[in-house]
Amino acid sequence: MIELGSLGLMLLFILIDSIYNREERINASFSKEIGFMLLALFLSMYVANTAHGQSFQITFIAQRHMYFYIFYFFLHGLRLRPNDVVKIIVGLGILISLLYLVQYVAYPRELFRVRISDERGTLRIFFPGQSFIFMTFYFSLLKFFEKYKYPWLILTGLTFVIIILLGSRLILLTTVVISGYFLLTSDKVRSKLLLIPVGIMALLVFLFVFQGIFTQLVDISKGQQANFAEDVRVRAAVFFLTEFFPNTLSYILGNGVESLNSEYGIMVYQIRDELHFFQGDIGIIGDYTQFGVIFVFVAASIYIKTLTAKYPYEYKFLYYYMLFITLLMLMSGDFGNVGAYLPILMILYVIDVAKHDAKFDKINEGDNNPNQGESGYE
User: Is residue 257 included in any domain, yes or no?
Assistant: First the structure.
């Protein structure tokens, strides 16, 4: 399999680097968290076997997408500069935004093998790696108010358009609230009074251009407010927390990842097909049902540590992205989805390097070394 082959190559690289590379190493301050997350995966395999009758071998293969947490150690082995990581993030954000826009315009013709939903008049396209769109939005927003150059404003507009097209009122609201928080608190914004008329004008333009989409979102919101108990996410959360766990141990260790090669996987598939309940739609609760208490506590630790870390301004957009996914943790399973947790691992790596650079600058304060490169590497 491609996934297992990729994992094997990464493991081999990490092993060779740890044995033969004697260069200075940046402290991997999140290594314990990653280790405990991997431990939670293997503990959940026990419940999948004893309570659901799914063999260890089947579970091991079924949860292969979760082994990519070693990407964090792979990044440390590569010793990428943070600016290069940012370029990768923004490059992927632009690429995915353009692909999303093309597929949206081309619908109902399907150009890519991605999940597309057209329910109640709202078109939703689920591209892998959509996290990079939000990261790029916050990056370009901060860049514009740092440089006041229009290319950054155009990129902000492009990514914001995609966020609107995603068709989620909660995601859109959270994006706007965090953007407003930045605009009101950042010292890079020169005239905060000017933001009021500019913001009103921008809102009116977006309402006019995307009137149909906003109308659909409002209608859906009214319908769900009128019957909160019928909200599919609420019903899914109640179901998985009250009827899905077979025994007490599963409430602690989780149930493991299912596979269609077992009766357990067939049961989960029937839940999705007949009840339309998806663990991925209930965020951290869905992760808990699969991987248990340890996994959730580690995820909470990462949320806290990334939100309390100190970021240089050029990486401050990573803070706003982490704030964004923290506020949405009950609807987005960021730590159980490889397309969502890989960007988080990139953030953890940048935080590690930023800490290293801050300590290096203090030690060498006043000492100019023209041969010293970024992140302490020549």
Answer: yes
